Amino acid sequence: MASLIVGICFAILYPILTLLPMVFTDLRELGAPDSIWLPSKFGVNSIEFVFRSVLRGEPSILLKSIGYALSICAIQVFMSAMAGYALARTNFWGKNIIFFLVIFVFLVPRQSFLITQYLHFKHFDVLGLFKLFTGGDIDLINQPITLYLLAIFGFSVNQSLFVFIFRQFFLGLPQEIEEASFIDGAGFYKTYFRIMLPNALPTILTVAVLSFVWAYGDTYYTNYFHTDGPYFGVIIDKTFKDANNWYINNQARQWFDTADTNELAFEALKQASIITFLTPLLLIYFMVQRKIVENLDRAGIVG
Questions:
Q1: Pair (168, 29) in one structural domain
Q2: What pLDDT does 257 receive?
């Protein structure tokens, strides 16, 4: 069993063990036989390249990406918690149909909804009111509000899963909690915000972390609905296309005064960008990983 665990750990860590020496080796020494596991000559050229080229000398791009992910996370948690509570604790006609649609949206590939969503936002109108008062519709493509509308109406990254998690959690809470609250004179909304929501803090934490990670790393919706936005993942994807190989290497040669760079330079610069991209996620993980592990069994995933 011990050897199996060691083998699995090595398989997981092997990419990192080979990645770090490449990133922190001076560009002139890449590919040297003695630079496989440890840098033969330590250098931070690759990290510097990320800040000068990918981030365009503006660390605010990274901060804007984090801010976008946090705002989407807040919207998703707020809307998903309300939807999950309504599906778990209230009785209304069509509740089972709505829950079926929630599961359906999660199971169906999101590419299936792309054309409909794109056309809807390309010619955005609400019940024909915009066309009635302005004579035309509104083009919301390449506008940041589009991504927030997707989150508000439950179509953002894996949001139907969050609704399911909250529903399962609220189903597991004793009915007596609400009954005692109603007896004390609290109404529906006061019971939800003052009693039920505080009890859901473990689930809120779990959903918030998942939402932030997926929103921060999303390149699907951001690429289609806000292409020019300051999203770090999208910028990395555009910068390190294979067609840019020569341009990136030439840029690195000029900036770092190297006569030549080998074929590993492009990969090293790309991996340095990925490490920079992952840094906020790793920090969040180390801060909340204990709470996440403790709360998974109460988050509705196994309920």
A1: no
A2: 67
More confident residue, 67 or 53: 67
Q: Where does residue 197 rank: exposed (0-12), middle (13-18), buried (19+ CB within 10 A)?
A: middle
Which of 145-149, 182-186, 298-302 shows the highest mean pLDDT?
A: 145-149
Q: Considering the domain boundaries, does residue 243 fall inside one?
A: no
Give the pLDDT score at 302. 45
Q: What is the pTM of this model?
A: 0.83
132 and 184 inside one domain:
yes
| Residue 259, domain member (yes or no) | no
Buried b (16+ CB within 10 A) or exposed e, 98-110: ebeebeebeeeee
Closest CA to 44 of 19, 68, 63, 27: 27
Residues 121 and 17 in one domain: no
Domain that holds residue 5: 1-43
CA dist., res. 243 & res. 247, Å (int): 8
Tokens of 244: 């840019």
Pairwise CA distance, residues 206 & 293, whole Å = 9
| DSSP conformation letters of 142-191 | T-HHHHHHHHHTT-STTHHHHHHHHHHHHHHS-HHHHHHHHHTT--HHHH
Q: Is the pLDDT of residue 12 over 70?
A: yes
CA 246 to chain centre: 31
Specify whether 35 is located in the same domain as 78.
Answer: no
Query: Is the confidence at residue 76, as pLDDT, over 90?
Result: yes
